[in-house]
Amino acid sequence: MSVTPLSMPTPGNTSGYPVRRFGSGIVWTLLTVYGILTLYPFYWLVISAFKTNEEFYSRPFGLPGKWNVENFSNAWESSKLGTAFGNSLVVSLGSLILTLFIAALASFILARFQFRWKGLIMTFFVVGMLIPIHSTLVPLFILMKQMSLLNTYWALILPYTAFALPTAIFVLTAYLTSIPRDIEEAAFMDGTGLWGLFTRIMLPMSVPALSTVTILSFLHAWNDFSFALVFINKTDLKTLPLAIANFADGYQTDYGLTLAAMTLSVIPTIILYLVFQEQVMKGMTAGAVKG
């Protein structure tokens, strides 16, 4: 009886190896090209932030002849970006905290309990994801005026929270539904109440989904221009997108200062994503394979 050594591959095991290797090479090549195309706009933004207006027009895609670092300091001082940064942080973090608190409580009830009208409530939140936010500008403006909330932080925090809640509840409910019931039953047997189950077990286990909601909600509030333009008129309350828009007027645009300000505005979002990047993919894919 002949014995085939373990170190010698059989022909049946290697027949498809070149094909798999070639297919893997194509996939990685396409992903590399896609990554380059995705990152190039950010690269162009950064290098253009160091150019003068003349260089921007004469060499739009080339490196700057002189790296004008003073563009950043001029942009920061001329448009009061420090105040705008603070306003954007207050509005974005305020709406984010409200969104996480309300969405976590609502998702816990929808995912772990059975009650009447549960399907209707879930449908209500899903339909909320389909409403174009800009179609509500006029009604919200009238409502904010009647409530005397115009030119306040609440004029932005409340709408941002309302439009972030449907997506947040949808993501969190899908994640919490995928958690086994055995964990919940074991917690009840140990004497844990509903609030303890929510704060000590469900919230720590739903960190990936909470990270996803954090990224989506923060980016929406941080980058929004329309609501801030309509609801905020005071200079001291203007957010970052409104401050950046000040570099353009009816006659010309200072692209060096504009792109420098845009580069500074992107930094917090990059930091936020780097902090939560590992949890984001877990949160986006959680519950996707649950039957």
TrEMBL record:
TM spans (from-to): 25-46, 89-113, 120-142, 154-176, 197-222, 255-276
One Pfam family in the UniProt entry: BPD_transp_1
Domain of life assignment: Bacteria
Membrane topology: Multi-pass membrane protein
InterPro entries in UniProt: MetI-like, MetI-like_sf
Similarity field: Belongs to the binding-protein-dependent transport system permease family.
Protein name: Carbohydrate ABC transporter permease
Source organism per UniProt: Paenibacillus vandeheii
